[in-house]
Amino acid sequence: MSAWGNIRTIAKREMGGYFASPVAYVFIVIFLLLAGFFTFMAGGFFERQEASLNAFFTWHPWLYLFLVPAVGMRLWSEERRLGTMELLLTMPITTWQAIVGKFLASWLFLILALVLTFPVIITVNYLGNPDNGVIFCAYIGSLLMAGSYLAISCMTSALTRNQVVSFIISVVICLFLILCGYPPVTNLLLRLESPRLVETVAAFSVMTHFEGFQKGVLDSRDIIFFLSIIGFSLFTTGVIIRGNRAG
Amino acid sequence: MIRVENLSKSFGPKLAVNNISFQVERGEVLGFLGPNGAGKSTTMRMVTGFIPPSGGKLSVGGFDIVEKPIEAKRLIGYLPENAPSYADMTVSGFLHFTAEIRGLRGDAKKRAVNRVVEMCFLENVLHQSVETLSKGYRHRTCFAQSIIHDPDVLILDEPTDGLDPNQKHEVRTLIRRMGEKKAIIFSTHILEEVEAVCSRAIIIDRGQIVANGTPQELKQRSDLAGAVSLRVNGVPTDVIKQKISVLPLSKKITILKESPQKVSLRVFPKPGSADGELARNLAELSMKENWHIEELHTEEGRIDEVFRSITMPDTVRKEESK
Ligand SMILES: Nc1ncnc2c1ncn2[C@@H]1O[C@H](COP(=O)(O)OP(=O)(O)O)[C@@H](O)[C@H]1O
Ligand SMILES: [Mg+2]
Q1: Which residues pair with B307 in a beta bridge?
Q2: Homologous superfamily, domain B2-214
Q3: What angle, rounded to 10 degrees, do the helices at B313-321 and B303-311 form?
């Protein structure tokens, strides 16, 4: 009956939903293959000749750009399509318990996928002497970033009963969050606009905030940035759902 | 248990529910009747707390649905229109989930699931996923979900929609039985169901209540109520009509069926006639005339006729202007 009990029940159901279909396994395999490809082929892991996972983490913002919305797109749109939203929201739970439960389940799923990348840690430790503190830090940043993308997908999935539409909108938003701090773009902007403005825009970018984690710096401002994206998006999800119901 | 006062709901400029008030107590089964788009589902969605009302007051078991939604929702079991459920779950998984979210744990949960599985005849499909079920089973799965916590208040939106005649009969029996201890609202557009199940019925049209009463009372509003039907063998129609029309209570005679041998006709009483008076007069007449009567009975009135005459304003208006 407690809030936490309700959240757990909802999260458990949602998690079961992922593994009831082959989609979950397909997703994890694709995630690992792409992570491997980016790290070893595109990232030039071996050519770097350094004992770090920079080649691995640099690609995460881009890797998540498509994979995380794919996980999050069904969260609410599926409930709307099936009509189960009416069932769920007439149960003795609050809307935010449902939102948090569903979000946590899919975040846990992404964390599981991320944990399965552990062979890269073994590899880099086998080949050299990396700073495992930095690696740990980067993992924290990566899962916070995944959570932010996911919260955004959660929000867009509440907007429509069509998963594809939900996917596209969240990719666009996430892409914006990447590009506004992506060096090629900021450099271009610097030539056109005042540095102050560019800096302000870049402050909203996941790139800027993920950088610190990759260097092994746990800056509270970066953590707060990601947590506020999650908080804001989940709050907005609640507002959208309330709007849906009010008609 | 359920109190609805001046409830309204508008979707943009459209007024879907317009100033509805009613009450349902424990032991009552209230039938919601009305044409498609009348506002039945919208009303039920407000009672269950899914959509907020635009105006009016609404409480379940004393708890205001807007101010104390969780307490109110705990008392309610709800079967939404089209019986939605999670397609990728098994029946058993789905029922365990709903039991858990209703706060049932451990043994209580198991017992609750077993009870509804038995009541709704779901044993055979327990481990099948919901999307592979036939419509009847899917419906019963969602129905099972609504009674899993043995709620005091049950809201059922078209509970027999899409079931075959046997399943319809089972569900009606179940509703009637549960209605002895619960407060139940159910909507339907099958009018015979109302007589079979409800202790009271409300007819809604374009968001407003246009009739409210027991099935008996509603039937009496029918033009047919009180009319006497009779079938006579071997007497010319003209003779019958002539003799009956001079009876002081008879207002109008319509011929229902005519064959060379037999004639069936219906006699409507003058307003204000006592119940059964016209039938007695007709019986006396036929005895005096030595008619061979094969059938004679007073009509109770028919709900479908009441329904049609109330919810089709155009025909009503035409009749009034006559
Ligand atoms: N979410 C909504 N947005 C806009 N109009 C709606 C919505 N839900 C219902 N309506 C309208 O309200 C009216 C009543 O609908 P409903 O309650 O579903 O009728 P019923 O269940 O009696 O068939 C209909 O005209 C319908 O189009
Ligand atoms: Mg309806």
Answers
A1: none
A2: P-loop containing nucleotide triphosphate hydrolases (3.40.50.300)
A3: 80
Q: How confident is the model at residue A42 (pLDDT cuts 50, 70, 90)?
A: confident
Question: Scanning the structure block, which residue is given the tokens 């606009």?
Answer: A193
Query: Within chain B, which residue ranges are assigned CATH 3.40.50.300?
Result: 2-214
Q: For chain B, give the longest Cα–Cα distance.
A: 78
* HSE of A208, CA atoms in CB hemisphere, 13 A: 18
Fold assignment, B228-298 = Alpha-Beta Plaits (3.30.70)
Domain boundaries of chain A, sorted by first residue = 3-246
pLDDT in tens, B245-265: 888 888 888 888 888 888 888
Query: Which residues contact ligand 1 via a Cβ below 6 A?
Result: A 247; B 11, 14, 16, 34, 36-42
Interface test with chain B among A9, A76, A241, by most B beta carbons within 10 Å:
A9
Span B56-76, pLDDT tens digits? 999 999 999 999 999 999 999
Of B58, B80, B37, B31, the closest CA to residue B203 belongs to B31
ipTM field: 0.90
Q: Are A90 and B48 a contacting pair at CB < 8 A?
A: yes
Predicted TM-score (pTM) of the model is 0.88
